[in-house]
Amino acid sequence: RKPLTDKEILEFVVSSLPRIGRNTAVKMLKHFKNLESIFTANEEELTKIKRFGKSKAKMLKNLFKKRYDKL
C-alpha cells in the first residue's frame, strides 16, 4: 500500500475517536478545517455538525480533558 496522504491521516485520527465514524470525521474536518480546531471546539460548536448531538459533544470534551496519568 502506498503511504497515507495527509488528508487520509487526518481522517484516520478523527475517525479513531470514540463514536466517530469516517463520515462524521470528514464532516468535522470540513467544518473545523484542522485537528487543533476540533480539539479546542466547545460543545456548542461541536453540535453544529450534522447528527452530532449534545451527548456525543460532551463525551468528546470530557475525553479531551482527561489526564493520562490520572487514569
The residue fraction in helices comes out at: 55-70%
Structural class: mainly alpha
Q: Mean pLDDT, nearest integer?
A: 96
Major sheet description: none
Commentary on this structure:
The structure is a single chain. The chain is an all-alpha fold and 71 residues long. The protein is built from five helices and no strands. It has helices at residues 6-15, 22-32, 35-40, 43-46, 54-65. Helix 1 (6-15) crosses helix 2 (22-32). The protein is globular, with a radius of gyration of 13 Å. The model has no long low-confidence stretch (mean pLDDT 96).
Layout: helices, strands, pairs:
Elements: H1 6-15, H2 22-32, H3 35-40, H4 43-46, H5 54-65
Helix pairs in contact: 1-2
